[in-house]
Amino acid sequence: MPTQPDDDSQRDGRQDSHRPVRHETADERADRNMAELLQELRVVQTGVQIVFAFLLGVAFTNRFPELDDFQRITYVVTLLLTVVSSALLATPVAVHRVLFHQGVKRRIVNLSGRLAEAGLVFLALSLNGAVLLLMDVVLSRTSAIVITAVSCAMFAGLWFGLPRVLRRH
Question: Considering the entire predicted model, what is its pTM?
Answer without folding.
Answer: 0.76
